[in-house]
Every structure is written in C-alpha cells, then in structure tokens.
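Input.
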Amino acid sequence: VYVPAGSYVIKGNLTVKRSVYLVGEWYNPETEPENIAKGTVLLATGNKGKADAAPMITIGASAGVVGLTVYYPEQDIASPVEYPAAFLIKDNVQGKGWQHASSIQNVTIVNGWRGIAADQGNQLPMVRDAYMTVLDYGFRINKCYDCARISTMHISPAFWAAYEGIDEATVAAQTKKNAKGIILMRTDGQ
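Output.
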C-alpha cells in the first residue's frame, strides 16, 4: 500500500496485515535534516497518556513498513506525555501463529514516548535505518528467536530538535532523564 508524501492524522491504530507493506516517501534525517518534515508524515494522536495501549501500527507476519515519519503533534518537550510504541511487530495478529520476517525500514520517529517493539514469538524480525528521538525506549525486543536483524538504528535528540526548530540541548536534557536505547528481554540469539 503506497502512501504518497503528505501529512496524515492517525487518531487510532493501524494493522498492516500478513504479507502487506505500508510504503511512503522518506528523507534520511541525518543526511537531509532540512527535509525531516517532508515525505510521508503520520501525525499520531491516538492513545495519548496510555503508554501500554495498542501501538500506532501493528505489523503482521512477513509484512512491514518502509519510508515513514511519525510525529506526535500533541507531544510537549516541557511536559512530555506518554504514548504507546509507534510500531509493534507482533505474533498472531490474524490468528496464524508465529511471525516470520516482518520488517521496519527507513523510518523516523520524531518525538515518541516509545519507539519500536518486537514481541511475543517473532522469528527473524528486521529493523533497518530507524532514526528516533524517544523519551522511554527506542527498541524493545522480547520473546523473539532466530536472530533479529537490527542495523543502522540511531537514537538522538537531533531529530526532534530539527523537526520543531528547538534547541537540541533542551531535548537532550529531557531524553537523558529516562530514555533507554535498546531493551533486550527474553530472546534467542540476539
């Protein structure tokens, strides 16, 4: 499913079903920070204040997202608000058993509370070229097996600062309070 460049309000949750890819237009925020607000931007407003609620996007087996930027328009650097993970690679989304080879590629999470989670029986999840500013965690993996493929993951206050034109030191002070880069839980062969 191709989503052309533009801003799209996501008031609830999306599920990318088995063998489907949600593909947008994306600019690398490290090499083209002036374009961070361009491309396919998902404006996440659902589940504000509910960190443990359903994620913005749940990704099914052999499915994925490519080329998306996620921005929380109601997030405030001075008084941060909890949100669930932007992306979740989850097993048994459609009652089909274990996940296989789901992926997240070329994404930016501008100002999330939580970034990406891979949970509950995933096999071979892949995360590549993920750039994020987060206030709780960047990537959490739990109950996965056969070696997740994780590469080129950047967690930095620079992305939020560039998007909103605010001082990077202000963002860094907030991220240093609680943010964790990668959380490895019960998982095989990472």
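The longest strand covers residues 103-119.
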